[in-house]
Design brief:
The protein is built from five helices and six strands; from the N terminus they run E-H-E-E-H-E-E-E-H-H-H. It has a single domain, classed as Hypothetical upf0131 protein ytfp. By secondary structure, it is of the alpha+beta class.
């Protein structure tokens, strides 16, 4: 079974996906889903969404299937050092349960009290971010996951995930 990744923030957006994963363009399969036991908050320091554990709550997002090693490396570059991947159980909208990699915030995220909302982000911030992503992604020049400028523990986990992805 292909590795699944759960996108709950800006990577839910197809335009952002195309900017981060241009080589996957229309091959990246996305399915609606929910991550139980969390809520979305706004990172004051980085102006992005972060997951906060909260029983009884659920976060909407998409399950992404079909990521390859280059896609994983590009995603790690896009997400930067404030996130690290953790395997969690997600509930696809079609029913059932699915294990997926979810990027959780590290201690540097500076979580605020404000709730992050996808629709609000699309209306107010997407255009600006979409104009910045191509420039950020041109900074991506890593030859492989070992050369990324990310914390070593995250890099080790990404290398283990990459073992199960197509080249």
């Amino acid at each position: 079974m292909a590795e699944a990744f759960f996108f709950y923030g800006s990577l839910r957006d197809p335009d952002i996906q195309r900017a981060v994963f241009p080589h996957l363009a229309d091959r990246l399969e996305t399915l609606g889903g929910h991550l139980p036991g969390y809520r979305l908050a706004y990172s004051v320091a980085h102006r992005c969404p972060v997951l906060v554990p909260q029983p009884g709550r659920s976060v909407s997002g998409v399950l992404a299937l079909g990521l390859d090693r280059l896609g994983l490396a590009r995603m790690a570059h896009y997400e930067a050092e404030i996130y690290h991947p953790v395997r969690l159980e997600v509930r696809p909208e079609a029913g059932g349960r699915r294990s997926a990699w979810v990027f959780l915030a590290t201690g540097s995220a500076a979580i605020g009290n404000r709730t992050w909302r996808y629709e609000r982000w699309r209306r107010r911030e997407k255009r600006k971010l979409l104009s910045q992503v191509p420039r950020w992604m041109t900074d991506y020049g890593a030859a492989n996951l070992q050369s990324l400028d990310i914390p070593w523990r995250t890099r080790r986990k990404l290398l283990r995930i990459a073992e199960d992805l197509p080249a």
